[in-house]
Amino acid sequence: MRISEIFRLVYLNLSQNKFKVILTSIGIVVGSATIMLVLAIGMGGRAEVAEQFKNLNAGAIDIAYGGESSFNMKDFMNGEMPDMENLGNEMQQFWGSAGNSGSTRGDNGSGSRGGFPGSGSMMQQFGNMFGGGSSSSGDEVILTTEDCEELELFVSGISDSTISYSSKASLEGGELESATTYTLAGVQSNYAGISNLKMSIGNFLTDKQNDSKEKVCVLGMSVAQEIFSSAYEAYDSSVYIDGRPYVVVGVLGAMGTVASGISPDTAVFVPYETGIKYITGPAISPTVTVIAADVNGIQQVMADVETVLADNYEGATFTISDAGTKMEAASASNDTLTWLLISMSVIVFIVGGIGIMNVLFLSVKERTNEIGILKAIGCSRRDILIEFLMEAACISFIGAVIGVLLSLAITPLVELFSVRVELTLSGALLSLLFGVVTGTIFGLQPAYKASRLIPVVALNHE
User: Fold this and answer.
1) Which of 84, 122, 286, 304 is most buried (CB neighbours < 10 A)?
2) In this structure, what DSSP letter does residue 386 have?
3) Among candidates 249, 259, 155, which has minimal Cα distance to 197?
4) Distance between CA 33 and CA 344 in Å, rounded?
5) Model pLDDT for residues 182-239, shown as the tens digit of each residue
6) At residue 281, what are phi and psi to the nearest 5 degrees?
7) What is the model's pTM?
8) What are the b/e assignments for 178-195, b being 16+ CB within 10 Å?
């Protein structure tokens, strides 16, 4: 039988059973739509990660104080349970030092009666244990500009350094009808250069403004648009931060990145010292950012930084991370989620393929007489095999096409949930390929069974 004749038979069989074809292909429809959306979401995630980190300096290393006791009363009040073994060890150390402290004071005639610990180092240890991380002196470490200078002095391979912190502050002014809370960042003048920030209008903060503690600020693009509708309207206007007027000396261009834990588009930047004096007070948790002159030497610079900090703050723990590690971690998380969703798509495809196989087995039983007639007029086993395989492939192809169209229709709904979707032609082709291959594989067994029927038996089948 010629291939054109087989195609005609396939067309006639499918066109006469349109509803059954649609129902049979539902599994492939869902699988195809799912895998296309999964690939699109995965590509969107990659693009989002690349966009967030595109303006980060490749040699940037962030340093933040991260030392904590095994038990923090504030965490406990928030519902976090302590490590009981470590807590027991700390309590043992606490009471051990209490006894020693009391005995010493008793011998000197200045301790509490019966040797019970008084104030001083004993109570300081108690406060450290129940209040969070501490340095060797019992006080929380607050990094300063002096730390930046020391790191540049004692660590070779650092080309620049800066210090910054972020907090929340209430803003009023412009078109805001009521006070609104925004992220506030206290930064130095070189923060813009280190973080590759670009100005839309005006200038970034200067050393003079920082030294004089001037009440000026730079707005991120999103903040400027929310408060003043545009960067042009925002420039040289005033906003009230915690009730005090600040002059807007500049507006950043749209960045879409995260630098030192700060998203520039949604932040308000003030001089480092200004923020400490008027907004946050000295109780801040700043981040020191240093720039490695050679990207290939980042690991050595990080090790040297850790050594210097360990000498300056004995017993304190710091979190030291570079931009590349952050991007790799974000990409790894995105890839893991993508593969998880692809696995789910494959399962859906398998279910759809089993549905096609069951329907084709039923079709073989229903069309046994037809198969007997085809063999009686000279059709070979190969012709019958090809016919049923082509039917399976066509059913799955139709399902895959519908699935691709369905994914295109669903995409706007997915984007409503702030999920970035990057539809690609390769994703659509891969969905179609998966659909056809799945249908063909699962249609192989029914097709083989049909081709093996004996003509006389098939003709006599009722």
Assistant:
1) 286
2) H
3) 259
4) 12
5) 999 999 999 988 888 889 999 999 999 999 999 999 999 999 999 999 999 999 999 9
6) 75, 180
7) 0.53
8) eeeebbbbbbbbbbbebb
